[in-house]
Design goal:
Distance between the termini: 3 Å
Strand content: under 5%
Radius of gyration: 23 Å
Number of strands: 0
C-alpha cells in the first residue's frame, strides 16, 4: 500500500503510551512521527474546517496492516470503516502544530526521494567507475529488480492464494493493495485477470475491505473498472447491487472517486478519460451533501484526468469532458461560485494547476489571474482556500519576465510577508518552485535571482518560525534547477550549510538537513554526519539520515546500519534510517529485518520493519517474504499481512507510490476523513 496498512496514530500512540489500539487499513511513511493533520481546514473565514483527526507528533503516518478487529456488518452507513482504527488522541486542540515544515515534507517527499529508482540502482555510488558506466548501472538494476518471472510465478500466486483462503482483514486488505500495485499482464482481448478477483470484495461485509477493494481497482488502473467505480461513486442501482445493499456507503463512494482519478491518470485512452470526467462532473453538479468527502474525492480526481486539448475542430466548449480547455473552463466556473461548499472549492485550484500542463499561455493566464485575485489584499476567501491558491501558483508560475509570471512572483512575496501563517509557509515553498522553473520567455536569470534573494533573506533575517520553511524552499529551488540541467547556486547551498551549522533546535536542524538533501549538496556530507552522531533526538536523527541518503554519502552506511539494528523498539527512527539505506543502495540488512519482522509483536514495530523491507528490499527479499505470508503457525495475522505489504512495495509497477499523485502539492489543511482519517483510515494513509 502507499506504503503499508496501519493507523497513523499508532506510532504516535506508541510514543505517547496511549492505549486502545484498534484496526486500520492504511499508513504511509510521510516523515518522522507519521501523523495526519487533525481538524484541518485552516483558520479564518468562520465555520468549522474539514475534519482530519489525527494524533500527536509532527510528520504524517506509517505502514502496516490493520490490527485484528471484528468486521462491521454491511457497508450501508458510510461511517468510519470498521470502527475506530487507532488509539484515542484527545481533542484536536491537543494535536500537532500543522504549521511545521515536516507536514509539507511528508506529503511531498516522494519525488525527491525517488526511492524505488535508488533501490534498483544497486547502490552504484557517484564518483565510482560504475557510476560513469551506463552498462554497469543497467546491469545492477536488472540484477536487483524482481524479474517478471519471479513476480508472476512466486509473488502473484502467493497473494492470490491469500485472497482466496484467508479470512483475516489484515491479510486481505494488504493483499488487495499488493495485487493492484503489482498489476497484471493484459490478455490479447485486453481483459484483466486481477480485476474480477478484486471486484468480488466490493460487497464484503467489512466496510474496511469493501472500500479498499474500490481504491484497489483504481490502483490496478484497468479501464474495465470504470463503469463499476462510476456506479459506486454515484450510488446507482448497479452500484448498490455490487455492494449488496440498498445504499453505497459514503466511504466506498469517496474511495471510488479517487479510484476513477487513478485510472484516468494512467490510461492512454482519451475516451476513457472523457467517460471519467463526465461522471465526476455529474457528481459535483449535484446538490451538496452533508459530508463533503465524495465531492472532495471527485474534485481531486479531476486533476488526474487530463482530457486531450481541443484540436480546433469545434468541440463543445460547454461540455467539460470535450477538451482540456472545457475542463478548465468548468473548473474556473466552479471555483468562482462562492455558493459552492468551500471545502470542495478549496481543492479546485490544485486540479486547475495540474491540468495546465501543456495548455496554452492564454489558459495559464486566465487561471493565474483568478488565483492571484483570490489571495489579493481585499480577498474575502477563507484562509484554507487561499492556502490552496498559493500552492497552485507554485505549480503554475516560472521565472521568466512574462507579466503573468511576474504577477505570480510578486503575489507570493506579498503573501509571504502579510498572509496568515500557513499561507506564508506555503508561499515560500511556491516561490522556490517558481524560481527553479525556467520559463519559455526571457529574463529567467533575473526571476531566479529575485526568488532566491527573497528566500535567502527570510532564511538569514526572517522570523524564527519561518526560517525552516525558507530553508526547505531554497532546497526545492536549487534541486529544481539541478533537475532542469542548470547550475544551482553555490551561494544558496552555502547559506543552507551555515544555517545548519549554527542551528541547535531539533526542528531547524531537521529542516536544514532535509533542505541540503533535497538540493543534493554533496559539500554538506561532513556536517550532516557530525550532526547525525551528535544529536540525541530520534526525530531529528531520522531527518538527517534521510538527508545523508539523498546526497548519496555511502561512507555513512555502517553508522546508519548500526542505528537500524539498535532501533527495533524505535519504529519511527527505524523507518527513517531504512529509507536512508534504501537511498544509499545498501541491502545487507534485509535478512536481519525479515527475522525481526517475524519476531516483532507490536503493530508499530511490525509496521516500521515491514516498511523498512519495502524501502531497502529487492529481489532477494521475495522468497522469505512469500514464506512469511504463507506461514500459518508462529506468526500473527498482522505480521503476515505486513509481509504482503512489503511484497507489494518491492514488486510495484510504478516508480513512485501510487497516492503520491494525490498527496503532492495538496493542501493538507483542507482534508477530509476519507483523505486522511482518524486512526489511519484515509486513502493517503494506505501504503
Amino acid at each position: 500500500m502507499k506504503n503499508f496498512l496501519i493507523c497513523t496514530a499508532l506510532l504516535a500512540g506508541a510514543t505517547l503510551g496511549l492505549q486502545g489500539v484498534s484496526n486500520a487499513h492504511g499508513g504511509t511513511y510521510r516523515g518522522p512521527g507519521d501523523t495526519v493533520p487533525p481538524g484541518g481546514g485552516g483558520g479564518g473565514g468562520g465555520g468549522p474546517g474539514p475534519s482530519t483527526p489525527g494524533p500527536s507528533s509532527p510528520g504524517p503516518s506509517t505502514p502496516g496492516p490493520s490490527s485484528p478487529g471484528p468486521s462491521t456488518p454491511g457497508p450501508s452507513t458510510g461511517g468510519p470503516a470498521a470502527g475506530p482504527r487507532g488509539p484515542s488522541t484527545g481533542p484536536a486542540a491537543s494535536g500537532p502544530d500543522l504549521t511545521l515544515w515536516e507536514f509539507w515534507w511528508g506529503f511531498n517527499k516522494d519525488k525527491y526521494l525517488n526511492l524505488k529508482e535508488a533501490i534498483h540502482s544497486g547502490g552504484v555510488a557517484s564518483g565510482t567507475d560504475e557510476f560513469f558506466n551506463p552498462g554497469a548501472k543497467d546491469k545492477a538494476k536488472n540484477a536487483l529488480k524482481p524479474s517478471e518471472e519471479t513476480i508472476r510465478n512466486k509473488v502473484v500466486p502467493a497473494i492470490k492464494e491469500a485472497l482466496e483462503k484467508e479470512r483475516a482483514n489484515d491479510i486481505i486488505d494488504a493483499s488487495l493493495i499488493a495485487l493492484a500495485k503489482i498489476g497484471d499482464v493484459r490478455t490479447e482481448d485486453g481483459s484483466s485477470e486481477f480485476e474480477p478477483i478484486i471486484s468480488k470484495f466490493l460487497g464484503d461485509s467489512s466496510q474496511q475491505i469493501a472500500e479498499t477493494a474500490a481504491v484497489s481497482l483504481g490502483i490496478l488502473a484497468n479501464e474495465a473498472s470504470i463503469e463499476k467505480l462510476k456506479s459506486l461513486m454515484l450510488d446507482t442501482p448497479d452500484g448498490r447491487k455490487l455492494v449488496g445493499s440498498n445504499q453505497v456507503a459514503m466511504r466506498t463512494r469517496a474511495f471510488s472517486a479517487y479510484g476513477l482519478g487513478l485510472i484516468g491518470a494512467r490510461t492512454t485512452k482519451n475516451d476513457a478519460r472523457q467517460t471519467i470526467m463526465k461522471a465526476l462532473v455529474d457528481l459535483l453538479d449535484k446538490p451538496d451533501m452533508s459530508q463533503p468527502d465524495v465531492k472532495v474525492g471527485a474534485m481531486l480526481a479531476i486533476g488526474l484526468v487530463p482530457i486531450d486539448n481541443d484540436s480546433g475542430e469545434g468541440g463543445d466548449a460547454n461540455d467539460p469532458s470535450a477538451s482540456r480547455q472545457a475542463q478548465l473552463k468548468w473548473l474556473k466556473r466552479y471555483f468562482g461560485d462562492s455558493n459552492k461548499d468551500y471545502r470542495i472549492r478549496a481543492h479546485a485550484p490544485t486540479s486547475m494547476a495540474k491540468l495546465l500542463a501543456g495548455a496554452s499561455p492564454e489558459e495559464k493566464q486566465g487561471v493565474a489571474k483568478l488565483l492571484v485575485e483570490a489571495i489579493g489584499k481585499n480577498s474575502k476567501e477563507r484562509d484554507v482556500v487561499q492556502q490552496t491558491c498559493v500552492l497552485a501558483l507554485g505549480i503554475i508560475g516560472d521565472s521568466d519576465k512574462d507579466k503573468v509570471d511576474a504577477d505570480i512572483r510578486e503575489s507570493l512575496k506579498r503573501v509571504s510577508d502579510d498572509g496568515e501563517l500557513q499561507t506564508k509557509n506555503f508561499a515560500m515553498i511556491s516561490l522556490g518552485q517558481v524560481g527553479g522553473r525556467p520559463g519559455q520567455g526571457e529574463g529567467n536569470e533575473d526571476g531566479q535571482k529575485e526568488c532566491r534573494n527573497f528566500l535567502l533573506t527570510q532564511l538569514t533575517k526572517g522570523k524564527n518560525h519561518l526560517k525552516p520553511w525558507a530553508g526547505i524552499a531554497v532546497g526545492v529551488m536549487e534541486r529544481a534547477l539541478l533537475d532542469a540541467g542548470l547550475t544551482p547556486s553555490a551561494t544558496a547551498k552555502e547559506n543552507l550549510r551555515e544555517a545548519l551549522k549554527d542551528s541547535g533546535s531539533p526542528e531547524s536542524v531537521g529542516a536544514y538537513s532535509i533542505a541540503c538533501g533535497i538540493a543534493k549538496d554533496l559539500e554538506a556530507k561532513e556536517l550532516l554526519l557530525h550532526k547525525f552522531e551528535k544529536t540525541g533526538d530520534d526525530n531529528t536523527k531520522g531527518h538527517i539520515a534521510v538527508a545523508i541518503g539523498m546526497i548519496e554519502a555511502r561512507d555513512a552506511i555502517p553508522v546508519i546500519q548500526k542505528v537500524v539494528l539498535d532501533s527495533k523498539y524505535k519504529p519511527d527512527l527505524l523507518k527513517q534510517t531504512a529509507v536512508a539505506l534504501g537511498l544509499l543502495g545498501d541491502k545487507e540488512l534485509v535478512p536481519e529485518l525479515i527475522t525481526l519482522l517475524g519476531n516483532a509483536k507490536s503493530l508499530a514495530s511490525q509496521a516500521a520493519i515491514a516498511s523498512g523491507l519495502g524501502f531497502i528490499g529487492d529481489s532477494r527479499s521475495i522468497d522469505p517474504l512469500v514464506a512469511m505470508l504463507k506461514k500459518k503457525e508462529g506468526l500473527t495475522d498482522t505480521a503476515r499481512g505486513f509481509a504482503s505489504v512489503a511484497l507489494g512495495i518491492v514488486c510495484d509497477k510504478e516508480l513512485l507510490p501510487w497516492n503520491a499523485k494525490l498527496s503532492a502539492d495538496m493542501n493538507y489543511r483542507a482534508s477530509v476523513s476519507t483523505l486522511q482519517g482518524e486512526g489511519g483510515t484515509g486513502i493517503l494513509d494506505i501504503l
